[in-house]
Write a structure and sequence with these properties.
heterotrimer; A mainly alpha; B mainly alpha; C mainly alpha; A: mainly alpha; two-stranded antiparallel ribbon; 74% helix; B: mainly alpha; Four Helix Bundle (Hemerythrin (Met), subunit A); 0% strand
């Protein structure tokens, strides 16, 4: 009898997979009436997975024949992903009920997408990476097109699917080049090969790495692989867009960090240039293109492109501090974005969602608390101290400056100034423009809870940032010793 | 050896030509048929490399299932591919240029093939001679042990694909008439037929 | 009993949050009561802390709450430092503040902004407690700025009054000047010591005695420079000469606020800071001399100004300024414990004076001008009585609290036996006469003689409600006995054992020790002077009421000079305010409007919008465009690598 493999590190993933299938069966038997119950059960599963991730599955080590790895970095990023997924799922409950999207597959697909993200974060092999990525993407393609009776939603799903397939193709192509030139797909073996005493790097590997980076850049929606983002955010159902902008982004950034830092860790000189380019392009495009938007979901899409640009600055620095900055940025980004999407989901007028930025006019008088929350998020995204968004940018910029990349820092600061314009414009519209009809109220308990919670986090982060900073520090150290 | 080489060049050139025709053929049905041809020749290449299992799988799955499915879809959906291609020429110069550049670069990369001895196959398990172990056995040996994780992951992906396709296609559309046999046969005469008195010269 | 330590500091914060966020829901009365209760909790906890730390000798160097900033060598924690010094301050601040809170319930009863008032008032107290219990410079700065902010909010509490707004802004800006120095001082400390925690800095201070540093091209003694910068902050916060102008205006706020500012919080922060940093100042003799000179000058200057003021609160405000001067020159001659002792006694009698003045104003239907008062003593006997207690304590009449502390300050100055000490001593004596005089003048003008108010005002004169008078009585008890109390528990003993190491006095600086052995005439002189001052006031305002006008007419230039507070406001207006306005206007019109807006924002904004439009035009919506963009991106990156030879 063969020894049972040590499966403890995979506990959270197994939990999600088993629970996902069980909920699927449950849904099939109970029908769409059980959607709400299944959604809450999914949230509970996320909670259980969270406990597993921070508890029994948090011991560093590899599992499943070394294809799967757990370290402090994986634990930290997985907790972020699970929190983001759970919050966005909770946010979507009201929406799917009102907009006739109440189908039990929705939470289940979200669950499987999250499973894919966790697999991505823990991937220790190019194939494992690809598997996680595809699982996540496939589920996301479906939820993007979830409202089949809406032309925009279908179009969004299709666009996302086709471009995603292209990106996956690039990624696979890159993987095969790397495999072809090195004969392995395992991260630690690759790292040994490129490290001191290894065999060195051939052009083929670098080109392969470029392709892999391009494929991953698509997932984090970095320029020039960002084109899908605004269309998909606008077309997809709002809670789905909220989900897109949070959990998959974090997972993809985590994956990018791991791929760049572990197998290609010694090729900093090579990938740094790609990351610098992508980061600058994303910051600039995210800042400028958002200025001209009138739809808040599109604006959020550009905003997320810009944020990814800022986060990647840290990776561009290529140091532990930089990676810490990225991790911290993603954590804060999670809070800001969840809250912001909560506000957007509360933008309903006469039982219909509205998405224009102008619809926010005079919100400060019709719904002062929501305006306050939105204002906090906008100020935070613009990076105004002492809100959390400021510290996110601060840590990244500090790392860049310490690495001596002053030009990059200057470009970053300049584009954050431009970005501040459109964030503050929203504040101005909310506080100083003539008010329109008020939004429907009440906005619902879940949304209020999320807006208030993330608002407080963003507002009070500066009082006690230490645990998060420490966590990010440990995570970065695990990745980038 | 020469025959093997000849066979290789035959399969390879036909594969490439067929692939070109897949995107160039005007008739979409022809495109799919060229795709089938490309698959067949790729299978031939696999056989030449001694990977008979993969060759068979390629034919069974891709030719037997996927390509035929494509064929059905293409024939059932009346898509005007010519209209879709409009503007294709407009982008041809740039697109062609990009394609050429990429191609040249890849040739450069492959040309500079430089797997030195120390790099070669550092990670993979020693490959046993074909005589000792057949392809199928070898795959089976690792698929469910070393790569069980990936195998399971692939399974979940396929599950999602299935769920996804059901979600996106199976939906209740209002205004669509369906046959419900149980309702048909349980109908009574009173429900089905209504008698009306019609006065002469007025119509119903 | 860690909880009590924390409660003594955070109680007011809780009260503030409750009052601020739920005040409107709770109602005015309940808000006031809850804020008072939270302060009461803090006060009881504060007493316990005082008892445990000062008497049982269990000082807690750092009650660490959690790490705040940890960046490289720069580490600052939220920690509470409860040594004897902090415990004394917590005791004084919570006690005075509690009584003022209670008083405010009555005083502010008819104000529409009660919850806001209590929220600010409690926050003010909390910030002061944060300041006194700080364990490092950064936390101290936090409290320091918090106190400044709250003082702004409270002075401008009646924000609809332009004068209140102006006073609030003035207080804020003058304080900023001082805070700037303080911040520079902290930077200096970090630069030199590479740490901001008190323990670390104090331990390293002796090594830097006599070291010098390059600053603006000069070689300056390191510690002197740092101490002077820090003292600049103290000057601003404690309204010392040159930076004193905000304090008298600060009485634009409601009277309890004035009491709080003058007695317990805010102005004492500067004195406390100098004492807290005694381990630094001790090694910077030049800085100490500056402290003493500024303090003595302020004591004298403010006393002269108080002679001629007619607004009852303004007289008391200048007296605060003057008394703070005493505290500073006590610190300047290394008699830190005496400075804190005076701070404590002063807190009681000054809170008493302000609240009693508030009671008078309340009774007189918001009249503050003493020339329109008179003969009130029969109508409001209790206020009259406590006002006497406060004034006698302030004048330093024997066996009231002020007598013990002020005499000891003067004796220490004399015993310091240096030019600075003598300067301080003689100015202090002069200030003592004047203090007695204006205290007497205030009493006689307000309560005695014929009434100068209109009949209808006089008809409505009434004693304040109990909720206001009880704090007055309690404070009067404090004003009488806090001196004896302080002496008896050994606060000012020459050996400094009471302070248990929280104050450092180098062995050469023995002014306090020698103060107990000064010649008899030095001990007697302040008392005599107090008597003289009160007698003169009695003669001028009771016996010969025509005399003051005569003196004023005779010495018209002097009178005007004093009435106009040495023309400081006018001077600052001419030197700083108006030129700043001109320069600001010039920059605004020419620089900002024409140059920067024209080229910068407007031009750049237009360009940015252009780019934005073009960038969003890239987004065509066509799938193949997107795919194309991705391919181009990859091709470009690959080309870049091959051309740049990245491999």
């Amino acid at each position: 009898m063969a020894a049972v493999p040590a499966l403890m590190p995979v506990l959270a993933e197994m939990l999600l997979a088993v629970a996902g299938m069980a909920l699927l069966l449950f849904g099939v038997f109970r029908g769409d009436r059980a959607t709400r119950l299944i959604a809450w059960l999914t949230v509970a599963v996320f909670g259980a997975a969270f406990l597993a991730v921070v508890g029994p599955a948090s011991a560093p080590g590899a599992a499943l024949e070394g294809l799967f790895v757990v370290d402090r970095f994986a634990v930290f990023m997985k907790t972020l992903v699970l929190i983001g997924a759970a919050l966005t799922l909770i946010m979507s409950l009201g929406y799917i009920r009102r907009e006739n999207m109440e189908r039990f597959e929705f939470p289940v697909l979200m669950l499987f997408a999250t499973l894919g993200m966790l697999m991505m974060i823990s991937a220790n092999d190019l194939i494992a990476l690809y598997m996680g990525l595809e699982l996540q993407s496939l589920a996301l393609y479906v939820v993007a097109a979830f409202r089949r009776d809406s032309l925009r939603s279908t179009e969004a799903g299709l666009k996302y699917f086709v471009l995603g397939a292209l990106a996956s193709g690039m990624l696979l192509y890159g993987c095969s080049l790397v495999y072809g030139f090195t004969g392995t797909t395992r991260f630690e073996v690759l790292a040994d090969l490129f490290g001191p005493g290894g065999a060195g790097v051939s052009t083929g590997v670098v080109v392969g790495m470029v392709f892999i980076a391009a494929g991953l850049a698509f997932k984090v929606s970095a320029v020039p692989f960002h084109m899908w983002t605004p269309d998909v955010y606008e077309g997809a159902p709002t809670p789905v867009a909220a989900f897109f902008s949070v959990a998959p982004k974090i997972a993809a950034v985590a994956l990018l960090l791991r791929v760049m830092a572990q197998p290609f860790g010694d090729l900093v000189a090579q990938w740094q240039q790609i990351v610098v380019f992508i980061s600058i392009a994303s910051m600039l495009l995210g800042s400028f293109a958002a200025l001209a938007q009138t739809n808040i979901k599109r604006l959020m899409a550009y905003s997320s492109i810009g944020h990814i640009g800022f986060a990647l600055l840290g990776l561009a620095a290529g140091t532990t501090e930089g990676v810490r900055g990225v991790i911290l940025y993603m954590a804060i980004y999670l809070a800001m974005n969840v809250g912001c999407w909560g506000c957007i989901l509360a933008m309903r007028r006469q039982e219909r969602m509205v998405e224009g930025i102008d619809d926010l006019a005079g919100l400060a008088r019709t719904n002062p608390l929501m305006a306050l929350a939105m204002g906090i998020f906008m100020f935070s995204m613009a990076g105004i101290p002492p809100l959390a968004g400021f510290f996110a940018k601060l840590y990244v910029f500090l790392a860049v400056i310490e690495a001596g990349m002053y030009t990059l820092a200057v470009i970053g600061v300049l584009s954050s100034v431009v970005a501040a314009v459109y964030y503050l414009r929203i504040v101005k519209i909310m506080y100083f423009d003539e008010e329109g009809d008020p939004f429907d109220s009440p906005v619902g308990g879940e949304l209020t809870f999320i807006m208030a919670g993330s608002g407080l986090f963003v507002l009070l982060f500066f009082v006690y940032p230490t645990p998060l900073v420490r966590g990010a520090q440990a995570a970065a150290a695990a990745l980038f010793p | 050896m020469i025959i093997a080489n000849l066979a290789f060049y035959l399969f390879a050139s036909v594969t490439v030509a067929a692939a070109v025709m897949v995107i160039c053929a005007r008739n979409p049905v022809h495109s799919v048929l060229f795709l089938v041809l490309a698959f067949f020749n790729s299978a031939g290449l696999f056989v030449l490399m001694g990977a008979e299992f993969l060759a068979m799988i390629l034919i069974v799955v891709y030719v037997g299932a996927v390509a035929v499915l494509f064929l059905f879809v293409v024939m059932m959906l009346d898509i005007n591919f010519v209209a879709l291609r409009e503007g294709f020429l407009q982008y041809l110069p740039t697109g062609g240029l990009i394609g050429l550049i990429l191609l040249a670069e890849l040739v450069l990369v492959i040309g500079g093939w430089s797997i030195e001895a120390e790099i070669a196959v550092p990670a993979s398990a020693p490959i046993p001679a074909p005589a000792e172990l057949s392809n199928t056995e070898a795959l089976g040996g690792v698929l469910y042990t070393r790569y069980a994780y990936l195998f399971q992951a692939a399974g979940v992906i396929l599950l999602i694909a299935m769920v996804g396709s059901i979600v996106l296609t199976h939906r209740v559309r209002p205004g669509v008439r369906k046959q419900r046999i149980s309702r048909q046969i349980s109908r009574t005469r009173e429900e089905a037929v209504e008698l009306k008195k019609v006065s002469p010269g007025e119509g119903a | 009993m860690l909880t009590l330590y924390v409660a003594s500091v955070f109680g007011p914060l809780v009260g503030s949050v409750i009052a601020g966020f739920f005040g409107r829901a709770l109602g005015d009365r309940a808000t006031g009561v809850i804020a008072c209760m939270m302060l009461g909790v803090a006060m009881v906890a504060g007493w316990y802390v005082f008892y445990e730390v000062a008497f049982l000798g269990r000082s807690r160097e750092a009650v660490e709450l959690f790490t705040w900033i940890d960046s490289g060598a720069f580490e600052a924690s939220w920690a509470l430092r409860f040594d004897v010094l902090a415990a004394v301050m917590v005791f004084v601040v919570t006690t005075a503040s509690f009584l003022i809170h209670v008083y405010s319930i009555g005083y502010m009863a008819h104000d529409p902004g009660v919850p806001r008032f209590f929220a600010y008032l409690s926050l003010f107290t909390f910030m002061m407690l944060m300041l006194v219990t700080a364990d490092n410079f950064v936390q101290m700065y936090f409290g320091w700025e918090g106190v400044g902010l709250c003082s702004y909010l409270l002075i401008g509490f009646w924000y609809k009054r332009p004068s209140a707004n102006a006073a609030a802004i003035k207080a804020f800006i003058v304080n900023r000047v001082g805070d700037f120095g303080f911040a520079l001082g902290i930077f200096g400390v970090f630069l030199v010591f590479n740490a901001v925690a008190f323990d670390t800095v104090f331990a390293a201070a002796p090594d830097y005695a006599g070291a010098s540093i390059e600053f603006l091209g000069f070689r300056i003694d390191t510690l002197t420079l740092i101490c002077l910068l820090l003292f600049m902050g103290a000057m601003g916060k404690s309204a010392q000469f040159i930076l004193h102008t905000w304090l008298p205006d600060a009485m634009e706020g409601p009277t309890p606020v004035s009491a709080l500012i003058h007695a317990a919080t805010m102005v004492t922060a500067g004195v406390f800071m100098v004492v807290r940093l005694s381990p630094l100042f001790e090694y910077a003799p030049v800085a100490l001399a500056v402290v003493a000179v500024i303090g003595a000058t302020t004591a004298f200057f403010a006393a002269t100004v108080a002679l001629c003021q007619t607004d009852i609160k303004r007289v008391i405000a200048y007296s605060t300024c003057s008394q703070l001067g005493y505290m500073f020159f006590a610190a300047g001659v290394s008699a830190y414990s005496v400075a804190i002792f005076h701070l404590m006694t002063h807190a009681f009698f000054k809170a008493l004076l302000f609240l009693a003045a508030g009671s008078v104003i309340h009774a007189m239907s918001d009249e503050q001008d003493m020339r329109k008062m008179g003969g009130l003593w029969k109508r409001i006997p209790l206020t009259y009585g406590v006002m006497w207690v406060g004034s006698l304590a302030l004048a330093g009449v024997p066996f009231f609290s002020g007598y013990f502390s002020k005499d000891l300050i003067l004796e220490s100055a004399f015993a310091a036996d240096s030019a600075v000490g003598d300067y301080a001593f003689w100015l202090g004596i002069a200030a003592a006469v004047m203090t007695a005089f204006y205290s007497g003048r205030l009493l006689f003008m307000t309560f005695h003689g014929a009434s100068r108010a209109s009949d209808e005002v006089m008809a409505r004169v009434h004693e304040s409600p109990k909720v206001m008078t009880i704090p007055l009585v309690l404070l009067a008890v404090g004003a009488i006995f806090s001196g004896v109390f302080g002496v008896s528990i050994g606060m000012v003993d020459a050996d400094g054992a009471f302070w248990n190491g929280s104050i450092l006095v180098l062995s050469g600086h023995d002014a306090l020790a020698k103060a107990h052995e000064v010649p008899g005439w030095v001990k007697l002189l302040p008392v005599v002077m107090a008597g003289v001052g009160i007698t003169v006031a009695l003669v001028m305002y009771i016996v010969l009421p025509s005399l003051p006008a005569l003196v004023a007419a005779r010495l018209r230039p002097v009178y005007l000079f004093l009435l106009n507070k040495w023309y400081f406001d006018e001077l600052y207006d001419a030197v700083f305010v108006r030129p700043a306005h001109y320069i600001g206007r010039g920059f605004w019109k020419a620089g900002d409007g024409a140059l920067i807006d024209g080229v910068g924002p407007d031009g750049v904004a237009a360009a940015a919008l252009g780019i934005a439009r073009r960038a969003s035009r890239l987004q065509t919506g066509y799938l193949y465009h997107y795919a194309f963009a991705m391919l181009i991106g990859v091709a470009a990156l690959v080309t870049w690598y091959l051309l740049a030879g990245g491999a």
